[in-house]
Target: BrxA/BrxB family bacilliredoxin
Amino acid sequence: MSMSFERYMLDMVQPMRDELTRVGIQELRTPEEVENAIPDAKGTTLVVVNSVCGCAAGMARPGVAQALQHDVLPDHLYTVFAGQDKEATAKAREYFAPYPPSSPSIALLKDGELVHFIERHQIENRSAGEIAADLADAFDRYCR
Model:
């Protein structure tokens, strides 16, 4: 029995997707979904660029989950998956200028404008707790 590579990858990454959707983050899987969600979102919007890498698993996703326990939260919570939903990720990254593509990464926008961004290099050398604290500080600053 043969399984397609695409099916295999979908099965492999589903638990990584579930880590974020389980805590209330909505997946945006197409450029159209990104366009319908991000540019016209009123208030604050968190966008997590998910990834299969170890720093996403060990620091980014757990850090985001911890941050979402904070008493002040963004109005909208979204994720795109780099390397899997490529077109949606490319569309989301258009809103993260001037930052180059980075995965994983975490963006906070206010009324469609980027106000806080955590790049991969700021994830891979920090703990999940440090990332959660960074996000909680950004939530306090921009989401009130």
Observations:
- The domain at 1-143 is CATH 3.40.30.10 (Glutaredoxin).
